[in-house]
Predict the 3D structure of the following.
Amino acid sequence: MKIATYNVNGVNGRLPVLLRWLAEARPDIVCLQELKSPDERFPADALSDAGYRALWHGQKSWNGVAILSRAGMIHETLRGLPGEPEDTQSRYLEAAANGVIVAALYLPNGNPRPGPKFDYKLRWFERLASRAQELLDSGLPVILAGDFNVIPTDQDVYKPERWTEDALFVPEVREAYARLLDQGWTDALRKMHPGERIYTFWDYFRNAWGRDAGLRIDHLLLSPALAKRLKAAEVDSFVRGWEKTSDHAPVWVELKPDRTARRSIRGS
C-alpha cells in the first residue's frame, strides 16, 4: 500500500499537476493540504474520473485538507481537532481507509512571531499531540500525514543559520515535534534516509528550486503497527520542476502487507 501527502497550494489551480501525478504515481491513499477552496468548489468529479474517492474539509481562499482513496471507501472519523471550539480553520481531517486510520493535517505556519499566529500554532500543536496520543492508545494502524510547517533538525534545511528566528524552526516548535515523536511515532522519511539532506519544499523565490535550497516540512508519521510494515519512503521531487506546480513536492511511504490481518482472516 502506498500512502502520500501533498500540499497542492490550490487544488483547482494545480488540478492538472495533481491529476498528472496521480496517474503516474498511483498512490492508494493521498492526503492533500492547502486546498484553498470552499467545499462546493472541490473538484470531486475530476478526481472520481481519475479513480479516487474523496473526503474534504475546505475553506475559501485558505487552508483546507482532503483524503483521497483508490483503495475502497473512506469513512470519516474526525473533522477538526478538539480543544478549541472557536477555531474555524480547516486544518485536520481523519478517516479510516483500506484498514488504516489516516489523519490529514495542515499545521499553522506561525509567522510572524512573537504574536497571535505563533501562539495559535503552539496551541494547535498541543491539540494535535493530545489527539495523536489517543490514536496511539487505540493500538490501531495510524498515519499522521501532512504539512507540519516544522523543520525538525539542521539536516532538514538549506543553510539553517538563516532560519533561526522563523516559526518553522525555533526551539519551541522543534521541541513540540520531538515530543510528538517521543509518543511512539516514526518519522518515515527520516527512518529510511537517516543521513541524507532531503527536502519537500522549495520557495518560488530566489531560484530556490534550481539551487536545491529547500526545507523538509512535509512528514509522514507512523504508529508502531505501521512502522513495522515500512518498506520505502521517498519524495517525488521531480514534480516540483513541472510547469505551474506547487512549491511542495509529494511525499510517500510504501507499506508491506499486513500479515497479522491475513492470519486473522484465515483463522476466522
